[in-house]
Amino acid sequence: MAENNSLKDSTRKFITTESLSDDQDHEKRVWDAVRQAFSDQECLGYSHYPLYQKIGEQREEPDIVVADRELGLTVIEVRPYTLDEIEDIDGETWTLDGPPTSEQGPTRTARKKLQKLISWTEGDRLFKMIGGRSFVALPAIEREKWKDRGLDQKVGDAHLLFADDLGKKTLHRRVKVATPLVQPTELDDEQWKHLQGALGGTTIYQEVSEGRTADTSTRAGVVTELQERLHALDLQQEHIGKEIPPGPQRIRGIAGSGKTVLLCQKAAQMHLKHPDWNIALVFHTRSLYDQIESLTERWIKRFSGGERQTYDEDQLHILHAWGAKDQPGLYGEMCKAHDVRKLTVGDVDGDSPAENLALACNSFFEEVDEVEPIYDALLIDEGQDLVVADHLRHEGRQPIYWLAYQALCSAEENGTDQRRLIWAYDEAQSLDSLKIPQAKELFGEDLSRIVSGTYSGGIRKSEIMSRCYRTPGPILVGAHALGMGLKRDGSMIAGFTRQEDWEAIGYEVEGEFTATGNEITLLRPDENSPNPVPHLWEGDVLEFETYETRDDELNAVASSIRHNIEEDNLNPSRNLLVIVLGGRVYKLRAKMANALQRHGVDSFVPTALELNDSYPDRFEKDPNRFWHDGGVTVSQIHRAKGNEAEFVYIVGADQIAREEASPHMRNQLFVALTRSKGWVHLSGTGVYDLYDEIREVISSGTLLEFEFSRPSRVIDENE
């Protein structure tokens, strides 16, 4: 089930961005006290909030930040000083006993960090001044002993927190009565939501149209409303995006839950926090390169408060899993580091990109006796697409995952060997493998429990994301039902066979998965599919049409797309996407592109160098390019993975219908449907049993009833 997202009651409203070490006991004590003091308040708290401000020669983040609806922002800087270490205080300059003697300005530092935080959040459309207080916490010093030294005469203690101020009621009272840097105004619902969005970073994805109100009776108006609407803060996303685990972490989630965005956020946060780390962010689909680079740069700019525009390419590496002649990849970089020849696709004989990569990795292991680690942290996106069948595993392990694990330096925690490998995968969305990536088969029996439990500070080793922000509820339910064959005559094709697994991806479940023929009811509540298009748009968001001939289908789709551009004012590039289904799709893709051109619409086939090139040259191409300004992208499913558009046209349902018992073909339909952020038009030719199934699924909306039968492909979570 989705987690409690309330900032009044949730146990997850306090976020430890990185586990505090044993020599940070003073910080642990204050952080524990803050969590107790604000536990009953409507607030959001961070240990080491990732806003990195240049102070002197260092970039520093605030030790503790609390955003409280009533009190505004509180920044606390924690210092381990004892009385004996403080030699003198002159205004805001504290002289500390050496050797060597040093001068510090902790109260000034705390105030600067608060000022930066306030100005930064006010820039996110907060229309009233946020209240703000800054403190220096001295957990090793008691207030009376401070006074006995006469230090209260040298610096006001209203903004100092001593050891005896750390009780639950005392600490909250001390914060409340302190004179704020900015007089607080209790925030209304919208302002409070914007403050949360500013801290969470969700505001960086808003596109604000000044002076324009969205007319949601038009598709363009709905798109504008989608772009301008600010999502409520998702506490689980806050944890995943901002936490730096000391070891492995698995992020398992439903399609459209935001995993790619969060991995980019996490990589940027690591890079700014630990600029000396060697970090790799790895992905599978080459057309995602520009998107991942852009997202990472946005987070770098965000977390640096605008002081930095991009990342250091010598320390943070955005890598394709394999790599190409003109683009580095994880496998290629490991070959380079170990003086091993990097194999090309022509050197191996797999049946899919994942199999080819696995064969290349296995060849690497045959040549290298001992792998030298070169990374401090490694993050993998699209993890489901890197898994291969058992016969291709290396000593019982998935080859690319084992290569990634071996590529990492040890990050010891509590005397145990840890490797900071973080991988994310979509449920039920692998186009090449029917395997579900579980730790035992990824890393072998000895490491089968590496993502069980939590790290110190409460950082979870495994997260399950159930909310889908991208795809509207009726389309997502349709994708699951059709991809798994839930309403198919005969047995299910694939799917979960336990109630808890359906609940983990956001469904409410009635019925028992114990015997064939049992009635099962699945309901997807709005809270787990918050995309508002079904409520903004009066028509259907998922449509299905059939045609007698392929020409009829392609001409109808092209005509509809022209209407979308000319009458609905949709942007041909980014708002619209055509996906062609099936195995050998190059001819169908070209026919669809040509149909668009006949109807006066420019088309773009991924990897081409220009518009209206229906058959891109295999040697003169841009493998990373998926979009082209002014053209409607027409893509096969493998290229479309990881991309999205408001209106998705899916052509060739008959290609699936002819092989409807194939999990691979069903999965194409699932992936295509989940590319949509607003509407889907699905079409095909002829008459097939699958078409009745499609119509029945569409009529079900977000409430699906079916008879259980054990599928050939079980995708339950067993860890």
Structural write-up:
GO terms for molecular function: helicase activity. This is Superfamily I DNA and RNA helicase. Residues 632-682 form the UvrD-like helicase C-terminal domain. Keywords: ATP-binding, Helicase, Hydrolase, Nucleotide-binding. InterPro entries: P-loop_NTPase (IPR027417), UvrD-like_helicase_C (IPR027785). This protein is an alpha/beta fold and 719 residues long. It has three domains: 14-202, 3-Layer(aba) Sandwich (Trna Endonuclease, Chain: A, domain 1), CATH 3.40.1350; 235-465, Rossmann fold (3-Layer(aba) Sandwich), CATH 3.40.50; 473-714, P-loop containing nucleotide triphosphate hydrolases (Rossmann fold, 3-Layer(aba) Sandwich). 31% of the residues lie in helices and 18% in strands. It has 22 helices and 28 strands. It has a six-stranded mixed sheet, with helices on both faces. The protein has a six-stranded parallel sheet with strand order 14-13-15-16-12-17, with helices on one face. Helix 7 crosses helix 8 and helix 14 runs antiparallel to helix 22 (689-700). It is globular, with a radius of gyration of 27 Å. The two termini are 17 Å apart.
